[in-house]
Amino acid sequence: MLIGHALLGATLAAAQTVQNSNIPRTITLYAEDSNKPYAFLDGTTADGIYVRILQEAFDRMPGYRLDIVSVPFRRGMDLLENGAIMGFFPPYERADRSWIERYSIPILRETVVAICSKDYAHSNELNRFPDDFKGARFANNAGYRLAGPEFFDMVDAGDITLEEANTTASNLRFLMAGRVDCYVNERMAILAAMQELDVDRATSRLFDEVAIIGHEFGYVAFGPDPEDYWPYRDQFADDLDQVLRDMRDSGEIDRLVVSYFAY
């Protein structure tokens, strides 16, 4: 299978470099490019809460240097599954991703919600998700499965109509334009996109949070490595887990989340 020659060549060169004990090993991790506020591309620079957490973690790991490449979610997952990259963040853990060989420790707890236009919410009895949403038009971030398998079974059956865009902001535009009735995503991601779009208070009141679908944790995911391009992967992952654990227990991760929104 042909997979990004330049990408694979750079990876192989890095993996084959003789490491001097005084020279940090460069670790290239791929990140989502449009998942505000968690991992996104700000101009030409990766930013977001997960990015800042990992940058702080690497500052505490003098044996490593972090390089981040931002890509769309689907692209990142395809590269990971094909063994073209070592790690990608921050996907959730899913049973149908059994090809992922290991995850970091859970980094952040996120709350997945459904929001709908006030007109739709007030015109329907919405007690159970997704059963009570038959006939609804939903927006969804391309590649995301946050709404759960029962929801997508209803989509496949034609009971729910789905429109997909790559970014949260684009999907909120669909909702504000009346093109869809509802949208599922993580709560802080929705709030951050509303800030990005300068949604005023009057407009934000046109939407209701109608369901808490669940809680998810974001991770650094490590895919298959059949050619042993990254023989140091597990040692690095163990080292990263220990630092992330220390940051969590000391409250540093919570501090970084608060400081991000205070910025």
Give a quick set of tags describing it.
alpha/beta; D-Maltodextrin-Binding Protein, domain 2; five-stranded mixed sheet; 263 residues; 2 domains; globular; 10 helices
Describe this structure in words.
Mean pLDDT is 91; it is low at 13-18. Strand 2 and strand 3 (39-42) form a beta hairpin. Helix content is 37%, strand content 26%. The strands form 3 sheets. It has a 5-stranded mixed sheet. It has 2 domains: 5-107 and 219-262, D-Maltodextrin-Binding Protein, domain 2 (3-Layer(aba) Sandwich), CATH 3.40.190.10; 110-216, Periplasmic binding protein-like II (D-Maltodextrin-Binding Protein, domain 2, 3-Layer(aba) Sandwich). The chain is built from 10 helices and 13 strands. It is α/β, with parallel strands linked by helices and 263 residues long. Helix 2 (49-59) packs across helix 9 (233-250).
The largest beta-sheet arranges its strands as 5-1-6-13-7
Major pleated sheet: 5 strands, mixed
The tally of structural domains comes to 2
The appropriate CATH architecture of the largest domain is 3-Layer(aba) Sandwich
CATH homologous superfamily of the largest domain - what is it? Periplasmic binding protein-like II
CATH fold title of the largest domain: D-Maltodextrin-Binding Protein, domain 2
Give the averaged pLDDT, no decimals.
Answer: 91
- Spatial shape: globular
Q: What percentage of the residues does DSSP assign to strands (E)?
A: 25-35%
Please report the number of helical segments: 10
Number of strands: 13
